[in-house]
Write a structure and sequence with these properties.
With 322 residues, this protein is of the alpha/beta class. It folds into 2 domains: 35 residues; 286 residues, 3-Layer(aba) Sandwich (Rossmann fold). The protein is built from 11 helices and 9 strands.
Length: 322
């Protein structure tokens, strides 16, 4: 059989498989499709996903005993659930159920052109928590993911959330305004958008090479693998969704979200965070929650969950078990 005939054979098999799959979907009906998690085979891999109300597919990882206390990890911009590898493995070994999802438009989730805002991010988490029936969960978010945690926890049904952790997180508001004079000027975020639109691939090398992990500091121990992994994750996502997310993480005022949270919240922040400066984020946010605690790490960068996982992970564990 020649190459053309072989390719045609594969196409016929794929068409047959697709027809069978469509028949199965039609048989269960739309309500059942949205209600339960789905596992879609892609080659040798198994992709765990849910489909939320607007049709967006959200990819997630769910490891460990389903009867154990769940820890849900929320990644930062423009990354994916892979950014939590060091924490997922650590807490899995501690006996927890560990879950991490790719935010809409990021990683392996649908490359959305709408709904790329904090309210919709939180609504997606509501659906994920319901689909997996997560109760007494600890939600941990980094950077933009910290904003997502604040938005979700403020809206979660009673019993869903036990505690929350915001690491190098954006709340209450990043943008400099008349009411937030210590914030970051709009010109900085306009620069992010311009760099992403002009050459996203280069921009996604410049960020991890420079401020994200503090690799631009004198004497920093630079990891090329870490830089390349940041780039890999960023380039997996959709450019439109990541472009929109800049507005979401910079302009969303989450003051009221923080005030509504009833569970204990731990804020972890490096005092050398060049991406989300501590003075206008964690130091303000901890005063807005009812049960807040702030731990500051001297000299640590924005990406300290990767560069200093050996220190951060035990601190997270201590808070969860407290």
């Amino acid at each position: 059989m020649n190459g053309l005939e072989d390719r045609a054979g594969v196409t016929r098999r794929e068409l047959l498989e697709g027809a069978l799959a469509l028949g199965a979907v039609a048989a269960v009906g739309p309500a059942a499709q949205a209600a339960a998690p789905d596992r879609t085979a892609r080659g040798d891999a198994s992709m765990a996903t849910i489909t939320v109300k607007d049709g967006t597919t959200i990819f997630y990882k769910d490891w460990g005993p389903k009867t154990a206390q769940p820890i849900v990890f929320h990644h930062g911009w423009p990354l994916s659930s892979d950014d939590w590898d060091a924490q997922m493995l650590y807490f899995l070994q501690q006996g927890f159920r560990v879950i991490a999802h790719d935010r809409r438009g990021h990683g392996r989730s649908t490359q959305t052109d709408t709904g790329n805002d904090m309210a919709t991010y939180a609504a997606d988490v509501v659906e994920l928590a319901e689909a997996l029936d997560l109760k007494n969960a600890v939600h941990i978010g980094h950077s933009t993911g910290g904003g997502e945690v604040a938005a979700y926890v403020a809206r979660a049904k009673p019993g869903r959330v036990a505690k929350a952790v915001l690491v190098g997180a954006i709340p209450p508001l990043m943008l400099k305004t008349a009411a937030n004079p210590g914030g970051t000027p709009m010109e900085v975020f306009d620069g992010f958008r311009a760099a992403l639109a002009a050459n996203r691939a280069q921009f996604y090398l410049d960020v991890p090479t420079g401020p994200f992990y503090g690799f631009n500091r004198p004497g920093a121990k630079v990891s090329q693998g870490t830089i390349q992994n940041w780039w890999r994750q960023g380039m997996m996502g959709g450019a439109k969704a990541q472009y929109d997310c800049i507005k979401a993480f910079s302009e969303t005022d989450q003051t009221e979200d923080l005030k509504r949270i009833q569970v204990p919240v731990l804020f972890l922040h490096g005092d050398d965070d060049q991406v989300v400066p501590i003075t206008d984020s964690a130091m303000r946010a901890v005063k807005l929650v009812k049960k807040g605690e702030l731990k500051v790490y001297k000299g640590y960068p924005h990406g300290m969950l990767t560069t200093h996982a050996d220190t951060i992970n035990p601190d997270l564990l201590a808070f969860i078990r407290k």
